[in-house]
């Protein structure tokens, strides 16, 4: 059975757009027969990495910071697939960045060159073979995810595992209207479920499925108009 550990880095946790898309994605993985564990970076209260690299050079594979990451490390080591889920901030929510930084003890400090870059690998006991990204954003274009995708891809390549791809949903707030899913929103979530199923059952997510998840729900001009109007109303309220 494929074991999956998913980390939701949204400060809104279960209530956010990221959770909405991630829930469907993980349901697809469960439907395909995987064992899924979900954690919230904000609930774990992970402290920042201090960068002393003691986990590499003094106490191999052991982080000296005693917080809830200590309980998460064994679960991560047993997973076949790691799913990172996050909204786009500038670029990541702080709790998510802290958690990613604290993955360092899982990486073996034996460096090599791959593809012209200095890389390492996960330690031998770490079973992760794929890292996937699920991300939502408020702006119109997929280009707004570029930095977040790069972070997930670099993490996978630095650890010597496959980057399994990115489930990206721009202008995610438009999936709901008056608190209810729209028909477009339902279609996106069904595609997200299909992507999770494909990743476990077929080993990869199809381009067609990923495109269905990230397709435009409105024109760029209309979304910009709406967002600017909302900003102007907020500015008028704050000015009294």
Question: Please, could you describe this protein's structure?
Answer:
With 240 residues, this protein is α/β, with parallel strands linked by helices. The chain has one domain: Rossmann fold (3-Layer(aba) Sandwich), CATH 3.40.50.360. It contains nine helices and nine strands. The protein has a five-stranded parallel sheet with strand order 2-1-3-6-7, with helices on both faces. A two-stranded antiparallel ribbon has the order 4-5. It has a two-stranded antiparallel ribbon with strand order 8-9. Strand 4 (107-114) and strand 5 form a beta hairpin. Helix 1 (17-31) crosses helix 7. The radius of gyration is 19 Å and the shape is globular. The protein starts with a strand and ends with a helix.
Per-chain topology:
Elements: E1 3-8, H1 17-31, E2 35-40, H2 41-44, H3 54-57, H4 69-78, E3 81-87, H5 94-101, E4 107-114, E5 117-122, E6 130-136, H6 146-158, E7 162-169, E8 176-177, E9 180-181, H7 183-201, H8 207-214, H9 220-238
Parallel strand pairs: 1-2, 1-3, 3-6, 6-7
Antiparallel strand pairs: 4-5, 8-9
**N- and C-termini, Cα separation:** 59 Å
Helix content: 40-55%
The stretches of 5 or more residues where confidence is low (pLDDT under 50) are none
Rounded mean pLDDT score: 96
Any descriptors?
alpha/beta; Rossmann fold; two-stranded antiparallel sheet; 9 helices
Summarize the structure.
By secondary structure, this protein is of the alpha/beta class.
